[in-house]
Automatic annotation (TrEMBL):
Organism: Hepatospora eriocheir
InterPro entries: Homeodomain-like_sf, WH-like_DNA-bd_sf
Descriptive protein name: HTH psq-type domain-containing protein
SUPFAM superfamilies reported for this sequence: Homeodomain-like
Length: 77
């Protein structure tokens, strides 16, 4: 599984890129692939930040009321 890149590292990557450091040097320093590097830079250029979009990620299987029902049934056991 690939390593997770922290928000701090993403900020450092963008800062180094804007400071004129070569792409290959940044990729080697953070041990990231070319695709990951350019995805971080592209997201920064499009949205002017490095955060994920709200609502991105895997959707939840159960909503809050369903979770409460499951918890109450488990407590009865």
């Amino acid at each position: 599984m690939a390593k997770h890149i922290t928000k701090e590292d993403k900020i450092k990557i963008v800062t180094l890129k804007e400071a004129g450091v070569k792409n290959l040097e940044i990729m080697n320093k953070f041990k990231i692939s070319k695709a990951t590097f350019f995805r971080i830079i592209q997201r920064y250029k499009l949205m002017n930040n490095i955060n994920r979009k709200k609502g991105s990620g895997r959707p939840k299987i159960f909503n809050e009321s369903e979770i409460d029902i499951i918890k109450s049934k488990v407590k009865k056991i």
